[in-house]
Design goal:
Helix content is 19%, strand content 29%. The chain has 324 residues and is α+β, with helices and mostly antiparallel strands.
Length: 324
C-alpha cells in the first residue's frame, strides 16, 4: 500500500451526500451535488479498510464484491464494538427507535443514537420514516425486539431489494400511509412488552424522496457488481440513497454504484474535464495504491460518461459479463 488517498465511502451528516477520504491520519470529504460529474479509475488491488478508524495491521487484500470491505479480523473487531452487538449495556446516551419504509411492503424497525439525528436513516436509504420512541439503549433495543416479533417486521432489508423498487415508488401519500399504518400497530403494543423507560414519540412521517433526488432522476437499470484493476466508472450524479450513487451513463442509462464496493481501492481521476476531481481529491491522480506502476499514465483515455466494470441488471438478477 502506498501513500495515496483511499475512499472511505459515502456519509450523510447533513442534507447532501459526502465521499470520505483518508491518507494515513489525514481525513477529508468531497461534498457531492446532483447534476455534477463523478468519475474514477480503480488501480491495483483492494485492501481491507480497517476497523474503528484504525488501519488494518495486515494490509489484507479483500474480494471486490465484498460490501463490508474488511478482512475477517477487522470485521470481528468492528462488530464487537457496535451497538448491534449488545456489548454496551451501560451506554449513557439516549437512543431513538424508528420505523423506516423503503418500498411497498418493505418496512423495518431500528434504533440509532439520538445525537445523530436522521443520519442513520439517510445512510440506509430510507425513503420515508417516523420516530417511534426515545430512551436508554437497552429499552430501545427491547422495543425493537418486541416490535420485530409482534409485527413481523425485520431489522434489515437487503440493498438489492431497495434498488429494485426505487424506480417505481408510489406517491407521497401512499408512502406516508404505510408508515402511519405500521406506527398504529406499534402504538397498540404499548403496555404489552413496551419498556416503561421508553418515551413514545408522536407520528411524524419524514419523506426523503426529494432529498435523495429520486423524484427527478430516471429509474436505475443496472448496478456495479464490483470494481477491477483499471476499471472505470464515470457519469453524471442524478440521485443518491444510502450508500448508492445513481450515475447517468451515455448508452447505458442510470447505473447504481454502491460505494461500499469502492472502499479500500486506490482511485485515480479520469482525464475527462467533466468528471476530473469530482470523485477524488485533487492530488489523488498523482498518488494512489498503484503508485509507481504506471497504471495512471498508460491507461487509455475514457469518455466523460463511461463504465468499464462488471454490471448486473437491477431486479432481474441477470449478469452483464465482461467490462463495459
Amino acid at each position: 500500500m502506498s501513500g495515496g488517498w483511499w475512499c472511505a465511502g459515502v456519509r450523510w451528516p447533513g442534507q447532501a451526500p459526502e465521499l470520505g477520504w483518508s491518507r494515513g491520519g489525514d481525513r477529508r470529504v468531497s461534498v457531492l451535488a446532483y447534476g455534477g460529474g463523478l468519475g474514477f479509475r480503480a488501480l491495483g488491488e483492494r485492501h481491507c479498510k480497517g476497523a474503528r478508524g484504525n488501519v488494518c495491521p495486515l494490509g489484507a487484500v479483500v474480494p471486490g464484491r465484498s460490501t463490508g470491505g474488511r478482512c475477517a479480523e477487522c470485521a470481528r473487531l468492528d462488530r464487537a464494538h457496535s451497538v448491534a452487538a449488545d456489548t454496551m449495556a451501560d451506554d449513557p446516551r439516549t437512543y431513538r427507535v424508528y420505523l423506516a419504509w423503503f418500498g411497498p411492503g418493505m418496512v423495518k424497525v431500528g434504533i440509532t443514537g439520538e445525537e445523530r439525528g436522521a443520519a442513520r436513516l439517510r445512510e440506509q436509504g430510507a425513503v420515508a420514516f417516523s420516530w417511534l420512541g426515545r430512551g436508554p439503549l437497552m429499552a430501545a433495543r427491547r422495543t425493537e425486539e418486541v416490535l420485530r416479533a409482534a409485527l413481523g417486521v425485520p431489522d434489515r432489508i437487503p440493498y438489492a431489494g431497495k434498488r429494485a423498487v426505487r424506480g417505481r415508488l408510489p406517491g407521497r401519500e401512499e408512502r406516508a400511509a404505510e408508515v402511519a399504518e405500521l406506527y398504529g400497530r406499534a402504538e397498540r403494543l404499548e403496555g404489552r412488552g413496551w419498556p416503561e423507560s421508553l418515551e413514545r414519540l408522536p407520528l411524524e412521517v419524514v419523506d426523503q424522496v426529494a432529498l435523495f433526488g429520486l423524484d427527478r432522476a430516471p429509474a436505475p437499470v443496472r448496478a456495479v457488481r464490483e470494481l477491477v484493476d483499471g476499471g472505470v466508472v464515470a457519469g453524471q450524479l442524478v440521485a443518491a440513497a444510502g450508500p448508492d450513487l445513481h450515475l447517468a451513463v451515455d448508452g447505458v442509462g442510470v447505473v447504481v454504484l454502491d460505494t461500499r464496493l469502492i472502499t479500500g481501492w486506490g482511485l485515480a481521476a479520469v482525464p475527462a474535464e467533466a468528471v476530473r476531481a469530482k470523485a477524488v481529491p485533487a492530488d489523488a491522480a498523482e498518488g494512489t495504491a498503484a503508485e509507481g506502476t504506471g497504471a495512471a499514465e498508460t491507461a487509455p483515455a475514457v469518455a466523460e460518461s463511461d463504465v468499464r466494470v462488471p454490471l448486473i441488471d437491477i431486479g432481474s438478477g441477470g449478469v452483464q459479463g465482461g467490462l463495459f
